[in-house]
Amino acid sequence: xxxxxxxxxxxxxxxxxxxxxxxxxxxxxxxxxxxxxxxxxxxxxxxxxxxxxxxxxxxxxxxxxxxxxxxxxxxxxxxxxxxxxxxxxxxxxxxxxxxxxxxxxxxxxxxxxxxxxxxxxxxxxxxxxxxxxxxxxxxxxxxxxxxxxxxxxxxxxxxxxxxxxxxxxxxxxxxxxxxxxxxxxxxxxxxxxxxxx
Length: 197
Known about the structure:
The protein has 197 residues and is of the alpha+beta class.
């Protein structure tokens, strides 16, 4: 019989705990109405989200009345290649798609970019990867049993041990980054089920 720890399990990856709730909390605090205070009608922030015309399907209205999503790149009719040309024309070089630092959808190219260009963000990401190893804080706080371990990298190795260069120059699922993320418009579709050893 295989010991329980060796049986494959699936965990649901959600951005709610690490992105959506913290953003809503920050907006409420900026407005001066932290939870549980009601935000009065007509009090809101405009939140600019950098979705280009090739990702128009990701542009969504906010699900709360105190935040109004606006999309300046869509208003300007700019595609991702237009944005890259604009940045290159101003000496800013290539950039990776935007995403949360701990996005579980990051491919090797994005992770390499962080590692090679932002040592502090890389150190933060290594620490985040270690912090989630035994599950989400909400699961632990609710007393739900946790099975398996959690990792940022698809290899299910600690991030500081994952070989990010193995796929360099070879487009594929581990190399490529999916659509980037923006506030309130993370990847759509069902949550990803990730095997846990």
